[in-house]
Amino acid sequence: MQEDSPIGGYFELELRQGNHYHADAIRLNSGTNAFEYILRSRKYRKVHIPYYTCEAMLVPLERLNIEYAFYSIDRHLEPTGLPSLGNAEAFLYTDYFGLKHPYVEQLTSLYGDSLIVDNTQAFYAMPCNGVDTFYSARKFFGVPDGAYLYTDSTLPVELEQDRSHDRCSHLLKRIDLGAPDGYADFQCNTQVLADTPLRLMSRLTETLLGNIDYEEVRTRRIANYYTLEAALRESNQLKLTLTDGAVPLVYPYLPSTSGLKQRLIEEHIFVATYWPNVLQWRNSGDWEHTLAQNACFLPVDQRYGDSDMHRICNVILSHHE
Length: 321
What we know:
Layout: E1 26-28, H1 31-42, E2 46-50, H2 58-63, E3 67-71, E4 89-94, H3 101-111, E5 115-118, E6 132-136, E7 147-150, H4 169-176, H5 179-194, H6 203-209, H7 214-232, E8 250-253, H8 260-266, H9 278-281, H10 287-294, E9 296-299, H11 306-320
Parallel strand pairs: 2-3, 2-4, 4-5, 5-6
Antiparallel strand pairs: 1-7, 6-7, 8-9
Helix pairs in contact: 4-5, 7-11
């Protein structure tokens, strides 16, 4: 607690004072802004980015008037071709769903410090030596915002600290009222955060992230992933591997028949779409379009246990009958 904090008075939220998982990283307010930090400090003039990414990644590139070129990925979620980089160029790769760290290591050998790794879907993957790497906390935990950045480059400005108290309504409503009642607030918070400039992580988010049992979360996510994998691997058109030490964001499942995503939603099993903008960026028949349109990214997070995973499996297997 800070030395000038008041003593006594009313209680705040009851949270334990623990450690951050990425204790040595720079603490910022969003993953997109962590990407901007890299772009500004490195002074890149061109960045190669995947078609299969969130459209928010374009915002800092366009804001800083940095040229970018798209590349495609294959069924292993790896680039179909690797460019030779010129002066002041970088190659951005996403560790998709926390399942691609071995490939990140291959790219590190090829590109070195010209590689930028988007680990917003791979919170537990540690950075490769000398590679700029950023993370988003709210993809894995119930926090309003927050990002971590590993880089040896610095900005010659002092960043303002963000404030997050007015971005928590969706988190509180989900507990008190249920997920549907908080969803509009969640969407609003996402837009507000997208429009928020680069700042340091707020005190509130720092405190919340110090409250998490990271090893328990790790264990639960891995166990849930393997439960789904055991039941669904034969019918899954995506052949990905959870390697030792990896912690998944979701279980990516690509069905052989249509309509599964809607069926899951009807059964109150909510699956994200990564990412709707890809449907406009790519044509029908392109691999990225197929992923965005048909893949079901099944929840494996720490809120759920075996019975929840079996419920998901039962819906999917009955859909295929």
